[in-house]
Amino acid sequence: MTMTHAQRHGFLNVFKPKGMNSHTGVAIARKLFDTQRIGHAGTLDPMATGVLVLAIGRATRFLQYMTSDKAYDGVIRFGVTTDTDDITGKVLTERPVPWLRESDVANALPRFVGAIDQVPPKVSALKQGGQRLYKLVRSKQEVNVPARRVIIDSIDLLDFLPGDFPEVSPDIEQAMDGSQLTSCFLHTQQAKIHVECGGGTYIRSIARECGEVLQHPDSLDSSSIGGTLAELTRTRSGTFTIADSVTFEEVREQMQVNADQSVNGLGIGKPTPLVPIEAALLHLPSITLSAIGQKRWLGFSNVIVRPQDMMPPGGAPLDQVCDPQPGDALRVYSDDATPVFLGLSIVYWCPKRSRLELRKRLILDLD
């Protein structure tokens, strides 16, 4: 099937099911769209569900300019620690915590809000010495994970759930083949939270670190109760929300309908499942170029940046004064009656001429 530009280049807001590896999702998209040019705006662990944003075709070039903030719903299980900081890992410690109250958790969570230094999980895709941490852990090599500065805008406690949850007892972990592992039930507490955060934040780390700061108020034992992540759903990635996400099966069905109608000469049936590149960049201010400026920009000549030619980001007041700074990324449009999105450009300060110019550019290359 011959696909239009809109059907070949854009962003796919896919709902990743539990158990699927993010790289498996990329592989599925490569087959569906018949291209190797697939990127992502942040992976999800296999245990997690929710929004997985994939860049298809030329959209991969614009990934770095998308907003990286994300939102999650997660469930922390207290009284349990694991080697992966989620419930899929090997249980390291477990202790019943029937005394834990909702107020204890509510009072602990605010310390993880703001610009904080967070220690990522040892089992993660981060690298140490050029190798993935999870590979080093699997090969039983020493792993030292330094803290990283992350931004957590808010953590809301949505629900507090006491109960008995199945665990694997660590006192029989010597059965490496799993033949002797048995399940038991541990009376503990769970907290459902909603997190708004910047890119690079690990919700697993929030679960672990929250468990580390909670202790029995009346016990002489100063050890923490521990915590691990039991559930995780990404509800938003940048401007892409879970409400607008689609499954791979829905994408496959939609593309098949379009293919069938194209073969029968009926044109395109349903709209493309891809979100236009422009729609993912509306958080950036824009600039409109005259016919001469457009010709210079498309010809890779320098173009003067004038604030009067600019518009604020989508959602901002239209009368907001634009104050471009060197390094800013701008959406670039033609000055046609219906402006055409041409691409993206970076503001550069030209000391020789003492003015701001557009230099580096990503041209959409419409065809």
Average pLDDT rating: 86
How would you sum up the global shape?
globular
Q: How many strands in all? A: 19
Poorly predicted residue ranges: 168-183, 263-268
Tally of contiguous helical segments: 7
What's the CATH superfamily of the largest domain, by name? Pseudouridine synthase
**Given the helix and strand composition, which structural class is it?**
alpha+beta
- Can you write the helix and strand succession as a string? HEHEEEEEHEEEHEEHEEHEHEEEEE
Tell me about the largest β-sheet. 9 strands, mixed
Measured distance between first and last alpha carbons: 16 Å
Task: Tell me roughly what share of residues is in helical segments.
Answer: 10-25%
Q: Based on the coordinates given, report the CATH architecture of the largest domain.
A: 2-Layer Sandwich
CATH fold type of the largest domain: Pseudouridine synthase
Rounded radius of gyration (Å): 25 Å
Structurally, how many domains make up the residues?
Answer: 3
Assembly type of the chains comes to: single chain
Beta-strand percent range: 25-35%
